[in-house]
Design brief:
Shape: elongated
Strand order of the largest sheet: 2-1-5-4-3
Structural class: alpha/beta
Number of strands: 16
Oligomer: single chain
Radius of gyration: 34 Å
Length: 489
Amino acid sequence: MDIYQDALVKLAAILGLNIKKNDLNEKSIEEILHEAEVIKKDDEMLNMAIDNCVDSFHIADGKGIILRVNRAFENHTKRGRTAIEGKSVQDMVKAHLYQPSAVLIAIKEKRKVTMLQSGPDGEVIATASPVLDENSEVKLVVSNARFTSELKLLEKYYDIKEKKKKEELKIIGSNSPVMKKLLSLAAQVAISDSSVLIMGETGSGKSLLAKHIHEKSKRKNENFVEINCAAIPESLMESELFGYSSGAFTGAKKGGKPGLIELADKGTLFLDEIGDMPINLQAKLLQVLQNRSITRIGGEESVPVDIRLISATNMDLVDMIANGQFRKELYYRINVVPLFVPSLRERKEDIPVLIHTFLDKISNENDMTIDISEAALERLINYKWPGNVRELSNVIERLIVTNNSQLIELKDLPNNILLLTDESTEDIIVNRIIPLKEALEAVERELILSAYDAYGNSYKVAKALEISQSGASRKYIKYKKMQKPSNKL
């Protein structure tokens, strides 16, 4: 019996339990067994994790004797672990399972080593990390390895990311002198943390320019958080921007929620259509910019935020200040560096590049090969593009998905583009006499459909045509159902 009691006391000591022989009773034995069961479960979980690791996993002692390998190591070396564990690292090198050995260098130099190794399945990047004891001697060496072929996926990811950046730059447009000058200034501005206000018409590429500035800045590896102030309902905007604390209002998420400003910490906050921000929130935003901190709705704690602010608008903010719609102090805070994106009609040199960029991009997305005739290209270049780059993109997409011949020709272009071309062309051309009522309806139809092509929603259409939003929606539904109009009045 004493032998069993001695064994239990030793087991208790191994498990870290301070139990002496005289203390052994039913309760203490249960404690020992419970602790052993916990360790067993932890060991099973650890073994499961090691065996399901993607990397080849390898543990050796300070003398280079292999203690443990995982399933990935077995698969890559084509050897079972019983043929590997207990053998020395030198034996593995002689068997050409891997060479040279990062483990041997780590033992010799007592430092972490990362190097290229060759093996039966090809080259791997191996990292060996020594674990030192209290005397600074190597106790263990833990190493992992991943095949270089698997890293090609990462390389592909960065290639795609870089290609997307170049594509976005093309979509901004960079052939015209005015855009070359703008992009040069944007690159210069990107280096600093100064607030930038990008101005320009709807659809001219302001958000892409904001992203371009972020990608060129020292914050490029942090978040780029974009907020369209015109797209968020006023009732939700405050909670979206500033977040809220737990129990701030009925239905508030338990634990609260960080706002978009908070999520932009260390990165760039882009406020698109800032002219649409309610006047009361403009005051709160100004406070954030001044104090470099926010307070969530219903909260008391001030949360520091480090953001670079870029704003954009298609409105005349100076005029809005005069009308009491925009805060003067906020305007001066966001307008440290003003940038103006010219409309597409002011930089026709960019249109051919944009057209071919959209043709390639949208054709690839739809698994098609579409080209454009010289006549059609010329007409698109001379069109006024009231909706700018966004309208051009929408038109090219429509021409691609409705095309049956793999070539976009002049006859395929929308009626509003066939009728309205360059600046010297009259807005309305009368080639024959028709009843005034019919003519007015034809013009109204063209204006409504063209405006929806350019702006995409009834609010902006109503604003551009100076009619009510309900009227814009009603007329669009009416004319969409009707037969397409002829090219001439």
